[in-house]
Amino acid sequence: MSSEGRRPRRPGRLSDPETIPGAVDPAELTEAAHTTAQALVHRGRTSHDPEVVARLVALVDTEGMETVAELWAGCPPDSLPGVLWRLYALRAWVRADARIVADRYRQGTEAAAVHDVVAGVAQVPTAQDVQQLVDQVLTGVYTRDLDVALERAAAFCRVVATGTAFDADHLDVVDSTGADRATRSASALLRTADELARAAELWRSGQLE
């Protein structure tokens, strides 16, 4: 990811247009996805520099969502690049809709209080609280036990999914289109939660690659 003997100012480009062109071989793309995911996780977990970890957490901000998606979005949820894609996509969504997410998290905790402890967000969260939570989850990927970070992210998704389902019920009276969109969002969040929880199990058994 960086030249030998030099300390890069940031994690480095995820893809090189000369080596990963638009018509790249699927097998090469899969190999690149796994290689970059493993390199980034190794980089974060072996670095004692908080600035390095901060840059890894903000990867999408510097590399762009399209670049990250190009490399990882097609990977299965039981793979390391697939897991990282889901976490970075979750972070991007929370940062874009932080107020809505915070409100739905608040609603969800009323029915899923046990997950509130696991996810670690204030009982009446602000937009900043939920943004900090997803950043903390990604920080945990690079600095602590990966399975714990994945379980924390899964718990967060389940709480927000519950709140989103409540929103769908409320919207159904006045906005059927919005209600349908919220219902689909809740289902997607639950699916992501299950995928992240399964990935945590795979990591513990040494099968997440």
Strand content: under 5%
Roughly how many Å apart are the termini? 18 Å
Helix-and-strand structural type: mainly alpha
Q: Round the Cα radius of gyration to an integer and report it.
A: 18 Å
**Helix percentage:** over 70%
Q: Main β-sheet, in a few words?
A: none
Shape: globular
**Count of DSSP H/I helices:** 10
Low-confidence segments, given as residue ranges, are 1-21
Strands, count? 0
Mean pLDDT: 84
Order of helices and strands: HHHHHHHHHH
Summarize the structure in words.
The chain is mainly alpha-helical and 209 residues long. The protein has 10 helices and no strands. The chain has helices spanning 26-46, 50-57, 59-63, 65-72, 80-96, 98-109, 113-119, 127-143, 146-171, 176-204. α7 (113-119) packs across α9 (146-171), α8 runs antiparallel to α9 and α9 runs antiparallel to α10. The longest helix is centred in the last third of the chain and has 29 residues, at 176-204. The chain is globular. The two termini are 18 Å apart. Mean pLDDT is 84; it is low at 1-21.
Tag the structure with descriptive keywords:
single chain, 209 residues, mainly alpha, 10 helices
Which helices and strands, and how do they pair?
Blueprint: H1 26-46, H2 50-57, H3 59-63, H4 65-72, H5 80-96, H6 98-109, H7 113-119, H8 127-143, H9 146-171, H10 176-204
Helix pairs in contact: 2-8, 4-5, 5-8, 6-8, 6-9, 7-9, 8-9, 9-10
